[in-house]
Amino acid sequence: MSRYGRTLVVLSVALLAVSSVSAPAETDVYASGVIRGKYLYNTDDDIESSAADTRVELDLYVGSFTLGAVYRGYQLTDSSYNPAGIDVPEAYLKHRYAAWQEDDLSARAGHFAATFGHGLTLRSYEEVDLEHDTLLDGFYAEYSSGLIDITALAGVAEEYDSATRFYSHVVRGARASMPVGEFLEIAGSVVERARTWEEEAGQVESEFARFEDGVVGGEASAWIGPLTLAAEYVDRGGEYPDVEGDALNGHATYGAATVDLGWATLFGEVKDYDDFAHYVVSPPTCVRDHLFTLMNRATYQPDLNDERGFLVEGSAPIGEDLYVTGGASEARNHDSDLRHWEMFGHATYSLGDATVGLAGSMSREYLFGAGGATGKFTEHMIGAAETEFAVSDEHVVELTVEAQAVEEPSGLSYEDYIVAAAWYAGVDLTFTLAVEGTSSDTEDRTRWTMLSAKKMLPGELEVELGAGTERGGKKCTGGTCYFEPEFEGVRLRLTKFF
After folding, report:
1. Helix (H, G, I), strand (E, B) or coil at 486
2. Nearest CA to 255 among 231, 223, 274, 233?
3. pTM of the model as a whole
C-alpha cells in the first residue's frame, strides 16, 4: 500500500479512537459525525496509480452552541490519475461553521446550505458523491414566531473554472413564510447576487468580469381534501454594468399537484424557465429520477435559460400484491422545438417471501445547433427486471438485469446490459457481483466485472472491499450530473458514524 493509502488508514484509526470517547449522556456536551474513506488502486497498465480520498465531518455540541468542520484529504500518487477530477490541496479544511439556537431563533456563521422555496430563487447544497458543492460561506439566521418564519442570509460561494481562475458569487437574501388559515401557506423571497470573475492574483480586468442580478419570488401551497397544490413564480433582472444595453431579464415558473384518491395517487408538475441559469439556483427538473442504473444514465439535464415542460405520473396498488407506477415527461424550448421526452413504467409483485419487479422506459433527447433544433436525437429503449427472495431467515438474494438499445444521431446503434447479484449473508455481511457489457465499438473494452464485499464491524464501522473493472459514465441526482471515469483495480471504502 502506498503512503497515501497508509495516510487514509492511520487517519481513520486515529479518529475512530477519538470518537470512541464520549461525554456522559446527562451532560450537554457531546460530539457526532461521520468518517468516509476511499482508497483506489488502479491496475490499468496505462495508469497504475492510486488515490486516497478521506472526508471527516465532526459536530461538537455545547449547550445551545454547535461547532462543526469538514476535513478533506485528497492524495494522488500521480496527478495524471485524478478520478474525482478536482484540483485541491492534499489536505485542507473544506468547511467550518459555528451555530447557536435558542427557542425560536437560530444563527449560523461559516459554511451553510440554503434553499428558498423549490430552489428557483436560491439553492446552495453539497452532493458528496457527485463532487458538487455550492455551499455559501457567511451568515445565516432563522426566526419563527409561530405566525411567521423569517430567514436572512449573506454569503459567498467560489466556482472554480481552472486551477487559478474562479467566479466569486456573493449572495444576500431573505425569505418570509406564513400560514393563511388552515389550508394555505404563502411565502416571498428576494435575493441579490453578484458574480465576479477572478484570478488567484486578483480580479480580471474585463467588462464581462462582473455581473449582478436580483430575483424576487412568491410561493403558495394549499391542501384541499385529497389535493395538494404548490406554485412558485420568480422574476429575474440583471445587467453587465460596463456593457451598455446588455441587460438580462428572466423568469421561472413552477407548479405541482398531487391527488391522493386512496386507490391511486396522481402527480404532475410543470416548469417554465427563461434566462434563469445561475450557480446557486437548482429548480425542479420535472424529469423522473430512476432507481435503475441505465435509466438514470439517460436522465435529461434541463436548460434553465430556455425551457418549458411537464412531468405526469400515477401509482396504484392492484390487489394486495401488485403495485404499478407509470408516467411521462416532456421538455421544449420557447420556440416549441422538442428537447426531450420520456415514457416510463415500473411494477412490483409480491410472491410470499419473494418480490419481482419489471421496469421500462423509452426516451429521446434532441440535438440543438447554432440555428436551433436539428431534428436529430439520441433514443434510449431500456428494460429492467429484479427479484428478491429469502433463502433462509438470515440470507437474502437479490438479482437485477438491465438492458438498453441506443440509437445516436450519427446512425450508430448499440446495446448495453447490466447483470447484478447481491447475497445478504446475515445482517452484517453482503457480497455483490456486477457485470456490465456493451456492443459499442467506441469503448476500450466490452465487458466490466466488479466483485465486492461489505461488512459492518463493531462500533458502526462499515468496510467495503471491491476488485475488478467498472464502467465509467454519467451519474445524476436531482439534475446535477457527474461523469465518473472507468476503473480497473482494487477499491476500499470505510464509513464510520459516531
Report:
1. coil
2. 231
3. 0.88
